[in-house]
Amino acid sequence: MFFSTKLICFLQIFNLLTIHVHGEKTEDATEEVKIEVLHLPNECDLKSKRGDLLNAHYDGYLANDGSKFYCSRSEKDGHPKWFVLGVGQVIKGLETGMMNMCPGEKRKVTIPPSLAYGIHGAGKIPPNATLIFEIELYAVTQGPRSVNTFKKIDLDQDKHLSRDEVKHYLMEDFKKDGKPRDLVREDWILEDIFKKNDHDGNGLISAKEYNVYQHDEL
Ligand SMILES: [Ca+2]
Ligand SMILES: [Ca+2]
User: Fold this and answer.
1) Where is each EF-hand domain found (predicted)?
2) Which of the ligands is closest to the CA of residue 200?
3) Which secondary-structure segment (H or E) carries 210?
4) How far, in Å, is the centroid of ligand 1 from the Cα of 78?
């Protein structure tokens, strides 16, 4: 139990989890996502941006007959969905439609087929379908690969993560739980992290190699 929770956490931090890409590859540049703000909270400190972890409920409708094809409230005991914005976990139209959104905000987002399920459709979605989503955003938090996480790992602040720095970070994180360490598994995790992130093989994970979500700040 202990190990599996920690492992998922590390895998998220280093983005080793496979991300599912939905939707069509082809894109008609002339078609755009239409965003209508239905409710805007009075206060908004943090607007959603690429790489953030969002928590939201949404209902999906077909534009041509208004029928509902999806409702997150009727799935998973009605818990709102968690996903990382801007990395292909949702269709392209939703990625665009949920940018710069405040926690507590409600939007109606109309998505052309080229930014949804395209000429083929998918499941309940017929070919060439324009989709309408009503979205209520609950929370915006920094994603697993945030700038702050990178800075925390990069102890000497040289914008590169060495093996020692990553190992230190993993150890500290394990220690937080007050549980015994499993050195074999930590080494295996470390190997895997460098295999998948150190693209030029120089033994260091640079800010660029880490920055899969392309934050502006790094
Ligand atoms: Ca460093
Ligand atoms: Ca490198």
Assistant:
1) 190-218
2) 2
3) helix 207-210
4) 43
